[in-house]
Input
Amino acid sequence: MKKIVSKKNIILTISITMFFLMWYVLYKLENHEVIIPSIQNTFSEVIKIITSDDFFNIVLATTSRVIIGFTISLFLGFILGFIAGLNKTFEYLMKPYVLVMRSTPIVAIMLIALIWFKSNNVPILVNFLLCFPIIYESVMAGVRNTDKSILEFAKVHKISKFTTITDIYMPSVFLYVISSVFNTISLSWKTTVSSEIISLPKYGIGNSIYTSKVYLNTAEVFAWLIIIILISFIFDLLINLLKNNVLKKIQHKEADNTCQ
Amino acid sequence: MSIVLENINKTYNNQQIFKNFSFLFEDGNMYVLTGTVGVGKTTLLNIITQITDIDSGMISGMNDKKISYLFQDNRLIKSKNVSDNIRFVLKDSMNKIEANKVIEDYLKLFDLYEYRNYNVDKLSGGMQKKLAIARTLAIPNYDILILDEPFNNIDIKQKNIIMENIIKLVPKHAIVILVTHNVEDVINFVSEVYVLEKIPNSKFYIHPI
Output
């Protein structure tokens, strides 16, 4: 096991070294900081950004947009997806809207949203439009895939609606949507930064990247990209931890409910 | 009040299974139904419980009755453990402490108490059947107990114990309808069996044993 891990690490190290080597070669060939900044300059920019006064505010602004947009999508996706799963009429009522959300290019929506909303809120809206249909549809599929024979058992025995939802539908929906929900958080993160580049709210990682580009400070653009990769990596780690915890909790709950 | 089936007609896949079928199930009695595979035993149970619609005829006496139904395929909830499968049918009628007591009693009665935290998937076929029977009997205040092949996967020694438990636990007023393909299972417990002989069925043939 240890051997496999170290082999994996060697390959990863080679891959990363190759990347920096290519970067260095391109930098030397181009020999122009605006087109390809040096590795050294880029990393000193990274440190400059991280230690700047506004860094915390910028990251917080973007992160809160991710969390707000995602939470609204999760909340509405869960409720509406659940109703649509139970009721075909409601599904058809929702269908055109979900289809529009799914197929309209995000950039087009962003431009319209910029006319209608404050630039601070546009990334949240865009985030919602991207995440909501994914969560909505997987919740709906989870409801539809609930074991029919158990539902019939509940009906014959006049089990209450509440217990039917909490004990039969919910476990089925949870297991069905858990991975799609967690994948959506990563997507939500990327979308928020992209839409910040266009909507330019006061604080935001996207905004900072745009400003660096305007001043032709390519080293700073690169530095921000590295920071995004790092934050994304930490975010993914946290999400995976949470995901494993939630999954464990569901299984734990099944195995741990003693009748004492 | 008894259950009355009057002139029931039911066609399934172009085959008439029941033709003007009538029968009276009286309170406090046990009815053992038997017949060959495909003769309509389970269909009749589903007609009584109104899972299956009838083409014509009348079913009366079912309106206020509370049913407890052991399905042939058990219908245990795979995502729940042994205890929680019983808790599921108790939740609506009692609090957690009362439910825990009922769960403990029934699991002990069916020798499943030590497996109370097991996931249902981990149990053998016979244990799953016993759990399903325990759950069926634990359902509070039922008026009709329906048991569709309760002895599948159960060895001979345990069949009698289970049958004794069923008789001991059923409320006095309840109607018990037990379907089995093997009459020997109940030979010590009833004096006659009700046979569905051939499709389309219009009545039971009563055989003394």
Observations:
- Chain B touches chain A at residues 49, 51, 66-69, 71, 73, 75, 77-81, 83-84, 87-89, 91-92, 100, 103-104, 107, 116-117, 119, 139 (CB under 8 Å).
